[in-house]
Specification:
The complex is a heterotrimer of chains A (237), B (871) and C (378). Chain A is an all-alpha fold and 237 residues long. Chain A is 51% helix and 0% strand. Among the domains of chain A are: 75 residues, Cytochrome Bc1 Complex, Chain D, domain 2, CATH 1.10.760; 85 residues, Cytochrome Bc1 Complex, Chain D, domain 2, CATH 1.10.760. In chain A, helix 2 crosses helix 6 and helix 9 packs across helix 10. Chain A is globular and about 45 Å long. The relative contact order of chain A is 0.14. Chain B is mainly β and 871 residues long. In chain B, the strands form 5 sheets. Chain B has a 26-stranded antiparallel β-barrel. In chain B, strands 7-13-14 form a 3-stranded mixed beta sheet, with no helix packed on it. In chain B, strand 1 and strand 2 form a beta hairpin. With 378 residues, chain C is an all-alpha fold. Chain C has 14 helices and no strands. The longest helix of chain C has 37 residues. Chain C starts with a helix and ends in a 79-residue tail after the last helix. At the A-C interface, helix 8 and helix 10 of A face helix 4 and helix 8 of C.
């Protein structure tokens, strides 16, 4: 390379870096005002495990809303008993990271460390789930859950949430797999809570994780009647 | 209008009418494109951007292709699909359903270093200056599926392309393109002539044609300015493909190519090696000024059971500079008889004649029971050429040698330098081809299938020419512009049954209309022992009947085994091994007797007999008995979730059953490649390859010198056998070409967010060694002590090596503006013994060369800055 | 100059076509809305140019519960004025691994596969499908390739319940290829069955990927044709980097300029009848026929040239004069062993060795059209 060439190279590089830096600064200034939560990519989320015993010790404050053994005290709070540990862990992380926001939970999760979250999640996962009820298998909710509604573009929920609402049944495969462990069990979940979450998915309030993006697409196909039917069915399941 | 002015035979009107008629048809059924039916123009790119659209592929979509799973899936074989680019929805165009998206990348390029390096410029016209990296504009109508796409790039006036496509999905597509492609042949050419690039090469001032000394020529050559030789291909085309009616889909395309420039050429005024200060060997420069017009038409009907396809290809080649005249500076004198200077100084070449080609092919396929398919194809083709022939020579005055009466070996140029001297005024050359191909495939069960095929192809050469001069009643031609007959008495190339001086001359008097008929039968079967593996075997019998060649029948039997498994520890492995054996009927070492004057009435066998045409034990390698085996393995291993390891191993072994001629060839090689794409922002690739090949031949020098047998010119010269007096074992020699190729490289691309960096390194290296051995020095071309000593040293190695390093930084200034800085550093080394010594002088006695060859070492650097604007 | 006038013709022609389409689009729209108001279907608008008999000939548009409807009623409802378009005529391929599955429509697929939909919507394949099937009720766009989706929707983890085209799907490659060929049969793919790629168990998706715009053209699996072929044929691609080669590494040529990877009637998968005809398409000057032919040239260009790349000049397989001396053992000057003594630096420089060797005199080696050219000197 001749001197002239290297000099030209240097000048251009310098000019480029300078303009790049200036642009970056401008962008930062513009974006400093509102900073939405970074998306939480759950596609590689492995199953989590933690110390359930330790979790029991840390769950004292949670019992106020979620009940002593994970069955909620009021219908607007979700049941945590028997829920997937990975799902619970991810939700706690979301509350802490801002992907989900709730008046109470955001503050509660902010105080938790990663190990705390794992332990709590394992504790609640180990709790006995709410006893199964008798749901109407002929209801609209059951139909939506098991077969969806192709005419309206509603996929069957059982695909990801299991044929009995107890979570997905993954098959061994060498293909890139969804993070099955992070999909929640829906059986016996509070209907009011489910309806609230489906509304949040549909409106985009809860859309900052890769899983939430999937649910956003699904919830967009549901109208109000469908939401109520599904929630009622799963509550009674 | 369509640049076919000189072209009266092209059915331009027909093509245009077809295009006009087709453009108004309504869409009825899904028409799909089949750009892969005709040859050429499938790739539009240049050295700046190999793909032709790389800026459109950046940046990658950070969300990947799914929210449900990370990474990318793999092809069924196991290779990873790359991360897709961020989808561009486009901006609305006005109020309707049209959207548009576009990109323009332009900037400035600076080339420094050895910018004239031949291998750097081989197919790219690198120039310092403004460049258009990419101009892409797409219009889409989501509702109707109509689209208009424009893409173009320009490196320089000789290296650019533009393409416009418009159409409607499922209905029709219109395409037009224009492109220039450069090809540099030499950047170190020193031709001495005036008029380079034209059809007449004349000598510059101090040199006089036919009367200059080698010293004078050497001086002019040393002072000649350096030139670059090369050519540019300019292609433009128009095409249409769409639904004609119901299930009928048609396509029509017309393409015009202009190829213009110069290439290295030659010029012969007889040998210099046996006759010092005599003869003339000139490396001239020929013009290239071609126009080729291609017309491709096709129509197809795809039904449930039957599929029909008819294609017509027409190609019309016109050479606008179809001859080359050159002046030779060297003086010729005779080697026997009274010393006299020959009046031979002008040479002429007939360059390629205009030709027309038509080919019509019909393919028909039908589905059968048992998952079967039967297909039959028939094609008829013809290649024709009827150019006006040039006279046999351009000399004026008297050629040949006058020894003493009656040994008058002179000829009057006036009898041979007009078209009156020809037996026919135009070539009237024609080759007709016919093809018939039928095949049937069945898969009765998912685990077993078999197929059979039959192919018949004939090439029938109808060209007939008899070299007869009606002015003199003589047969033959004037060899090497009259020089041969002016150096060696009687070797003018004439046969004259009435003249004792010429009635024993065995010269070519007829053309050999080579052709052949080839029949191939194929049988094969395959089994699936498991769900993911298959084993196949194919037997092929190739029965070839060449015409007017050394053998009338050449048969080759081939068996091929292949094994595919899509799960060998997760990898896909494809193996194949084939073995072929070629045999034939009796080998006739001289089937050309009917084409020589010895077959004409009035031929008198010379006293010592005619020397053997060639050694009888030689086997031409396209007809000889041969065994061949080839093996190949392609392995693709999915390594983890984001990497792929792939490798190929291959080898060929050919053994020719010939004492003289090609003996064997052998190739062995392997490649390995690693690809890794952990995130949409990062791609890494590394590869290595190695290959060695060998080619061995054997030949035998005839005993034509006083010091290696001295049989030529004696009665024993008629014996064609190896080991005989004319071709003694002592003169046998062997030559082996060994080549070793290595290549490797590494590339990395990472997107930091605001900046994307890419780095690429490539290495290609080859080493070639030509070695020879000989029974005795009788095999050598020259046998004086200095030559023998030099011969013993052997040829130096041939080398070719390039190292290329590419670095790029792309900055995102705003959402629609980007800046790209890039640089390339390339260094190369080249050495070929063909050019040994040419750096010092291009002139060796009566030999004059033009091309010094590629640079021995070169370093080039390229720096560029491009501005990227999203439209 | 001629090239410029042709270019002008091209640009004018294309510009007028584009203009006509843009102008005509408004007319077509008007036509569609007018027809739409008259049609019985509330959410349907007909595409222009279909006649009643055309529609009657085509398969009916996919409709939900089609499986059950067909099972129960072999005579589905008449289409009437319903505007089925060519893309709706695309049938839904049966999945041998899920024979009981029913189609569920693209909307259900997109509900879960939202990002796939974003990527796929911008590919040539899906975009053209959507444009073609734009307005006729439930769309089969996804299921025209992936087969009926009800079984997969209920149990997506189980492989094989939907036709998959990637490495880990249970669908065998011949089934995958069969799906694509249902629409794309014929033309360049007429000889796929029995071709070497089909025989080696390749599926269409080894080279193509219609789900994402990885290449702006050709719906390829990598960003360009040459990269696709080089995935497996690495050694051939490496050969192109040698001293003499055709401009494939410079981005001006693709493997498919000469080869048809979908299968052809020649062994090396060429697009023409023979090797030579492929070469003559671009190198038309070598076609001749010449007055005096050179036998190996007429028989097969590969006798002397290595078409993918060579270490010798002009793609030759061996250095001159060794190349010629494989066959030319004739009496006198062809059969002498040229040694280092004949080099330009040697004691006895020989015209048969230096520079272009034999070709300096026998320049018209591909054939001569000169009456004095039997030995290709002229």
């Amino acid at each position: 390379m001749t001197c002239r060439t290297s000099l030209l190279w240097m000048c251009l590089l310098g000019a480029g870096l300078a303009s790049g830096a200036a642009a970056q600064q401008a962008a930062e200034d513009a974006g400093a005002a509102t900073k939405p939560a970074a998306m939480l990519d759950l596609r590689r989320q492995p199953a989590v495990s933690g110390d359930a015993q330790a979790g029991a010790g840390k769950a004292a404050v949670c019992a106020a809303c979620h009940g002593a053994h994970g069955v909620a005290v009021a219908p607007n709070f979700p049941n945590l008993a028997g829920q997937s540990a990975t799902y619970l862990y991810v939700q706690l992380k979301s509350f802490k990271g801002g992907q989900r926001s709730d008046a109470v939970m955001s503050g509660q999760a902010a105080a938790l460390s990663d190990a705390d979250m794992r332990d709590l999640a394992s504790y609640y996962a180990a709790q006995a789930a709410k006893l199964p009820g008798r749901a109407d298998v002929a209801s609209r909710g059951a139909q939506l859950y098991h077969a969806g509604d192709p005419a309206r573009g509603i996929p069957p929920c059982q695909g990801c949430h299991g044929p009995d609402g107890m979570g997905p049944r993954p098959h061994p495969s060498s293909a890139p797999q969804p993070p099955w462990a992070s999909f929640p069990r829906l059986r016996g979940q509070s209907g009011q809570y489910l309806a609230h979450e489906l509304h949040d998915f549909r409106s985009g309030m809860r859309a900052a994780t890769s899983n939430a993006k999937v649910m956003q697409g699904v919830a967009a196909t549901l109208d109000e009647a469908d939401v109520q039917a599904l929630s009622a069915y799963l509550d009674a399941l | 209008m369509l640049a076919l002015k000189g072209n009266r035979t092209t059915p331009t009107a027909l093509a245009l009418a077809l295009l006009c008629g087709l453009s108004g048809t309504p869409d009825v059924r899904a028409g799909d494109t089949s750009g892969t039916i005709r040859v050429g123009d499938m790739q539009f790119g240049n050295a700046l951007d190999l793909r032709g659209w790389t800026p459109m592929l950046q940046p990658a979509d950070p969300d990947g292709v799914s929210y449900l799973h990370a990474g990318m899936r793999r092809t069924p074989t196991g290779a990873l699909y790359p991360y897709p680019p961020l989808a561009d929805a486009g901006k609305p165009l006005g109020q309707g359903d049209w959207t548009y998206a576009g990109l323009i990348e332009l900037g400035y390029l600076h080339v420094g270093g050895d910018r004239n390096a031949e291998y750097f410029r081989q197919y790219a016209d690198w120039k310092s200056g403004a460049v258009l990296g990419l101009f892409a504009l797409n219009f889409d109508n989501r509702k109707t599926g109509s689209y208009v796409e424009l893409r173009g790039s320009r490196l320089s006036g000789d290296d650019q392309y533009y393409r416009l496509r418009a159409g409607r999905y499922g209905s029709y597509r219109l395409e037009g393109f224009y492109r220039d492609m450069p090809h540099t042949v030499s950047t170190r050419a020193y031709p001495i002539w005036n008029g380079v690039g034209g059809t007449d090469l004349t000598l510059p001032a101090p040199l006089v044609a036919g009367a200059s000394t080698p010293a004078q020529v050497a001086a002019v050559s040393a002072a000649a300015p350096r030139r670059s030789l090369g050519l540019t291909r300019t292609r433009a085309g128009l095409g249409y493909e769409g639904v004609l009616y119901r299930d009928w889909i048609g396509s029509a395309a017309i393409t015009n190519e202009k190829r213009s420039g110069t290439r290295l050429w030659g010029g012969s005024m007889f040998f210099n090696f046996p006759f010092p200060d005599d003869g003339g060997i000139l490396e001239t420069v020929r013009p290239i000024d071609f126009r080729t017009t291609d017309i491709n038409l096709s129509v197809r009907n795809v039904g449930k059971l039957w599929r029909f396809l008819a294609t017509y290809n027409g190609s019309f080649f016109r050479n606008h500079k179809d001859h080359l005249n050159f002046e030779s500076p060297f003086a010729l004198y005779n080697v026997a008889g009274t010393p006299q200077m020959a009046d031979i100084k002008d040479g002429q070449f007939s360059l390629e004649p205009d030709n027309d080609y038509h080919n019509l092919r019909l393919d028909l396929t039908r589905e059968l029971k048992w998952n079967g398919q039967f297909s039959v194809a028939g094609a008829w083709g013809t290649m024709r050429q009827n150019d006006a022939l040039l006279p046999p020579t351009t000399c004026t005055g008297v050629g040949g040698i006058y020894i003493a009466p009656p040994a008058d070996y002179t000829f009057q140029c006036a009898n041979w330098n007009t078209t009156a001297a020809l037996s026919q005024k135009s070539a009237n050359a024609r080759i007709d081809t016919g093809l018939f191909d039928a095949r049937v495939t069945f898969r009765p069960t998912p685990a077993f299938g078999w197929h059979a095929g039959l192919r018949w192809y004939r090439e029938d050469n109808k060209t007939r020419y008899l070299a007869y001069n009606p002015l003199t009643g003589q047969y033959g031609y004037i060899s090497e512009n009259g020089s041969q007959g002016s150096v060696v008495p009687g070797e003018t190339g004439i046969f004259d049954p009435t003249n004792p001086l010429y009635w024993s001359r065995n010269v070519t008097v007829r053309n050999v209309p080579f052709g052949y008929t080839d029949t191939v039968l194929e049988l094969g079967a395959d089994w699936q022992p498991g769900r993911k593996s298959s084993l196949g075997v194919t037997y092929t019998y190739d029965h070839n009947r060449p015409k007017y060649r050394e053998r009338k029948r050449v048969d080759e039997q081939r068996i091929k085994f292949d094994w595919v498994s899509r799960d060998v520890i997760g990898a896909t492995v494809r193996l194949s091994w084939e073995y072929a054996k070629r045999t034939g009927d009796r080998y006739n070492y001289d089937p050309y007797v009917p084409f020589f004057s010895r077959s004409l009435p009035g031929f008198v066998d010379p006293a010592n007999g005619l020397p053997a045409h060639t050694v009888a034990d030689m086997r031409k390698y396209d007809l000889s008995d041969r065994t061949e085996s080839k093996a190949r393995a392609i392995i693709t291993y999915p390594w983890g979730e984001s990497a792929t390891l792939s490798a190929t191993f291959y080898g060929n072994r050919d053994q020719y059953d010939a004492l003289i001629g090609r003996q064997h060839t052998r190739t062995t090689g392997a490649t390995v490649q690693w690809d890794w794409q952990p995130t949409p922002a990062t791609t890494v690739n590394a590869y290595l390859g190695a290959e060695t090949s060998r080619l061995g031949i054997s030949n035998v020098n005839d005993a034509d010198g006083p010091d290696n047998g001295a049989v030529f010119g004696t009665p024993e010269q008629v014996n064609p056998n190896l080991g005989g007096p004319l071709y003694p074992f002592a003169n046998q020699w062997w030559e082996l070409d060994r080549e070793r190729n290595r290549n490797g490289g590494f590339s990395l691309s990472h997107d930091f967010g605001r900046v994307r960096a890419d780095l690429r390194y490539d290495y290609t290296g080859s080493l070639g060694h030509v070695g020879y051995s000989y029974a005795t020095i009788g095999a050598l071309a020259t046998r004086d002590p200095a030559s023998v000593a030099a011969a013993a040293a052997g040829f130096p190695d041939n080398k070719y090596r390039t190292n290329t390093l590419d670095l790029g930084l792309s900055f995102t200034v705003s959402r629609s503006v980007g800046v790209r800085l890039f640089g390339r550093y390339q260094s190369g080394a080249f050495s070929d013994w063909h050019y040994a010594g040419l750096d010092n002088t291009l002139s060796y006695d009566h030999r004059l060369y033009t091309d010094k060859g590629g640079q021995l070492h070169y370093n080039v650097s390229l720096v560029g800055v491009m501005l990227n604007l999203k439209l | 100059m001629r090239a410029i006038s042709l270019l002008l013709a091209v640009v004018l022609g294309a510009a007028s076509t584009a203009g006509a389409m843009l102008l005509g689009a408004r007319e077509v729209q008007a036509q569609q809305t007018a027809a739409g108001s008259a049609a019985p279907e509330p959410h349907a608008t007909p595409a222009g140019g279909l006649s009643q008999s055309d529609i009657a000939r085509m398969l009916p548009a996919t409709d939900m519960g089609a499986g059950a409807a067909r099972a129960g009623n072999p005579h589905p409802a008449d289409m009437g004025d319903s505007p089925a378009t060519p893309f709706d005529a695309a049938s839904i391929p049966p999945n041998p691994l899920a024979p009981q599955a029913d189609p569920i429509g693209a909307k259900s697929c997109v509900a879960c596969h939202a990002q796939e939909n974003v990527q796929a919507s911008h590919t040539l394949h899906v975009a053209s499908f959507r444009a073609g099937a734009a307005n006729t009720g439930p769309q089969a766009a996804c299921e025209s390739c992936h087969g009926p989706g009800s079984a997969h929707a209920k149990d997506p983890a189980a492989p094989g319940l939907i036709i998959g085209f990637t490495h880990d799907s249970q669908t065998p490659p011949p089934t995958q290829a069969g799906v694509c060929l249902a629409c794309h049969a014929g033309g360049a793919r007429q000889h796929w069955i029995g071709s070497v790629h089909q025989n080696r168990g390749l599926s269409c998706t080894d080279c193509h990927n219609p789900m994402a715009r990885l290449s702006p053209e050709g719906v390829l699996a990598k960003s360009s044709i040459n990269e696709v072929c080089a995935t497996c044929h690495q050694d051939i691609r490496a050969k192109f980097n040698r001293r003499s080669h055709m401009p494939l590494p410079e981005g001006q040529m693709a493997c498919t300029d000469c080869h048809n990877p979908h299968g052809s009637i020649t062994r090396p998968l060429l697009k023409t009848d023979t090797v030579n005809e492929t070469c003559y398409t671009c190198h038309a000057e070598k076609r001749g026929p010449f007055l005096f032919e050179h036998a190996p040239v007429r028989q097969n260009c590969l006798n002397c040239h290595d078409v993918h790349g060579s270490n010798q000049q002009t793609l030759l397989v061996a250095p001159v004069p060794m190349l010629c001396q494989q066959c030319h053992t004739m009496t006198l000057h062809p059969n002498d062993l040229q040694s280092a003594a004949g080099l330009g630096t040697g004691p006895h420089p020989d015209e048969r060795l230096i520079g272009r060797g034999c070709l300096t005199c026998h320049s018209n080696i591909h054939g001569s059209n000169n009456p004095s050219g039997p030995k290709f000197h002229k």
